[in-house]
Design goal:
The structure holds 2 protein chains of 2 kinds.
Chain A lengths: L2 E4 L4 H6 L5 E10 L2 H12 L12 E3 L27 H6 L4 E4 L5 H10 L2 E4 L5 H5 L2 E8 L8 E15 L6 H9 L10
Parallel strand pairs in A: 1-2, 2-3, 3-4, 4-5
Antiparallel strand pairs in A: 2-7, 5-7, 6-7
Chain B lengths: L1 E3 H15 L5 H13 L3 H20 L9 E9 L3 E3 L3 H15 L23 E7 L3 E9 L1 H4 L3 E5 L4 H16 L7 E9 L1 H12 L10 H15 L14 E11 L4 E8 L5 E7 L6
Parallel strand pairs in B: 1-3, 2-4, 7-8
Antiparallel strand pairs in B: 2-5, 5-10, 6-9, 7-9
Helix pairs in contact in B: 1-4, 2-3, 6-8
Chain lengths: 190, 286
């Protein structure tokens, strides 16, 4: 059974989310990937405000295809989260509560998640059309010059994801893979 | 025999419009088989999402994945063909430009690797050209996504490392790719030649039809052994654990130097987009 979650996340919801939960997210998420993160962190260093309200926010690591006429957005699957690891702890210390992407995170990111009670959702990589269907509104809110990499405010409804790392640091990439690893010696499922 | 470059441009345009929205039957079959053999409950769910996405994309002419890739074209030009009407490379770039605009595909190419300004039309393509015998032009198109490209690897092994050294390196690269490169994977392995040739062989291996065995039984056996080893890693669909880490392993080889053993591993996610197109030359009376 999927858990139905309304964004922004509050502390009780974050506490209740456990690695392995399948969720359907509804509410506002912001897209940002490499170039947008780099620019946000540069601007913070210059003493500027972030272009999005970061407290309680959910960032989706994604750069969509252009929308066809009549469409809200083009295909919009997750990009590899690890490339944002250098920036994520700073954003979580400022209030970022959830991230959506694919792939493993660094120890620094997990530590910042535990420290700030944040959650990391995985979306199915490559499933750009399936995920596009969950987006009901989209607008560029910062860095339009970055094109696909601009920051977009998306309103989503029943966006499918899986809790991959929860706010206590449980990590599916570590726990699940071990269950299916075969040892070379006995050739058996462990 | 002659071929007008506009014909090549047009086939490139149509080809990229097709492969970004609809997977070939070889890839579709490999994905469907994976769903039936998956043992992890999370993995079964992920495979269901992948298959549903594939059908939605084909049905709506939408890109399967938002990373519509860097356009790569393998050309084999028959030496009896005369190309007319303009530059060959520019015709290919133009075909890519038109396909990416017409298909509402994402433009993912930057004009300089460090200064990183987007070219705005997904050009240039990467073009590998080979001269061969005959009257035709053969093209293999692939739209290579970089989630997986980034996790590829190349190593110059010592000849003493042998077959086992190659296997260990491939396993190492796939283990490192883990959940980042959108498993289940297609794995292309290039062995031999020179440094750069092993990398090109690895990509050629990826654009072979999935499951089409290496013609040499020695290397086919190695493909099978690698497939078993890699699926034993337990990485599974999306790296969330399971029996399907790799859908197919394909090896290509070339003679090499007595002192070396180059090995390249080109990773590809489950969205392995490729298509072969043959253009026949017309009689040239000019």
């Amino acid at each position: 059974m999927d858990k139905v979650i309304t964004l922004p996340l509050d502390e009780n919801t974050v506490d209740a989310l456990k690695a392995g939960d399948r969720v359907r997210l509804s509410g506002v998420i912001y897209t940002a990937r490499d170039a947008a993160h780099q620019r946000m962190l540069e601007e913070l260093e210059e003493g500027k405000e972030l272009p999005i309200p970061i407290k309680g926010a959910t960032i989706y690591y994604a750069g969509p295809c252009p929308a066809k006429p009549g469409e809200v957005i083009g295909s919009v699957g997750p990009t590899t989260s690890g490339r944002m690891d250098a920036y994520a702890p700073t954003l979580m210390d400022l209030g970022l509560t959830a991230m959506i992407g694919k792939g493993d995170r660094s120890g620094e990111v997990t530590a910042a998640m535990i420290r700030n009670k944040a959650v990391y959702f995985g979306a199915v990589g490559g499933a750009g059309v399936l995920l596009k269907k969950a987006v009901i509104a989209s607008e560029v809110v910062a860095y339009p010059d970055l094109g696909a990499e601009a920051i977009r405010k998306l309103v989503v409804e029943d966006f499918p994801a899986i809790v991959v790392i929860d706010a206590t640091g449980n990590n599916l990439y570590e726990t699940e893979v071990k269950k299916y690893e075969k040892s070379l010696e006995d050739g058996q499922w462990e | 025999m002659k071929i007008h470059v506009d014909e090549i441009k047009e086939q490139v345009r149509k080809g990229f419009l097709r492969i970004n929205c609809r997977l070939g039957p070889d890839v579709e079959q490999a994905l469907e088989k994976a769903q039936t053999t998956e043992v992890s409950p999370i993995g079964i769910g992920v495979m269901g999402d992948i298959l549903e996405n594939m059908k939605l994309a084909a049905g709506s002419q939408s890109p399967i994945c938002q990373d519509t890739g860097m356009a790569v074209v393998f050309l084999r030009i028959g030496q009896d063909v005369r190309l007319t009407g303009g530059g060959l490379n520019e015709a290919i770039h133009q075909g890519v430009r038109e396909a990416y605009q017409e298909g509402y595909f994402r433009n993912s190419i930057v004009e300089d690797p460090l200064r990183r300004k987007n070219t705005g039309d997904n050009t240039p393509a990467v073009i590998h050209t080979e001269l061969t015998e005959g009257n035709d032009v053969e093209m293999i198109l692939t739209a290579k996504g970089f989630g997986s490209e980034n996790m590829s690897g190349l190593r110059m092994l010592k000849p003493s490392a042998g077959r086992q050294g190659v296997i260990d390196f491939v396993v190492d690269v796939v283990r490192q790719a883990g959940p980042n490169a959108c498993p289940p994977f297609f794995v292309g392995v290039g062995i031999g030649g020179t440094m750069e040739m092993s990398a090109i062989l690895a990509k050629k291996a990826l654009v072979r039809n999935a499951g089409e065995p290496n013609a040499d039984p020695y290397y086919h056996q190695m493909e099978e052994e690698l497939l078993e080893r890699l699926n034993g890693l337990g990485i599974g669909p999306m790296g969330l654990g399971g029996a399907n880490t790799v859908l197919s392993v394909q090896v290509e080889t070339y003679p090499t130097h007595i002192a070396g053993l180059p090995v390249a591993v080109n990773m590809c996610c489950h969205v392995n987009r490729h298509e072969k197109i043959v253009i026949k030359g017309e009689e040239d009376r000019g």
